[in-house]
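In response to reviewer comment 3 from the previous cycle, which asked for concrete evidence that the modeling workflow produces usable outputs, we include below a single protein chain processed end to end. The sequence was submitted unchanged, and the resulting structure tokens are shown without manual editing.
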Amino acid sequence: MKHNAEVQESRHDGLKWAVVVTLLVLAIAGNTYFADQAILYRVLGVVALSAVAALVALTTTKGRELAELAKNAKKEIQRVVWPTRPETIQTTAIVLVAVLVVGLMLWLIDTLLGWAMSGVIG
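The workflow returned the following structure tokens.
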């Protein structure tokens, strides 16, 4: 879904994506290389490099489109009419009763077919 004004792709987007990939590869390689270090420091390093990579990615055209999509999704979620507690309890009870009834019917059919096959086989 495009805006009224087309978003022009920056000529530096390719370079930015290369930086993102490089940062993520550095995070993975660094985590492996420093395996003998405390896990806290390795996690902090991976989180920091991933955060920088995410910030760089958000400056690209696709990153801005993703941010806009997330903003629109948040607005859409706020428009949803969520069921009340009594509606939720009633719907859950109906589903549980339906599952129980279907389960009993399947058990009954299985038992009858089992008795029938026992009678045929002997």
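The mean pLDDT is 91. We consider this sufficient to address the reviewer's concern, and the full set will be provided in the supplementary archive.
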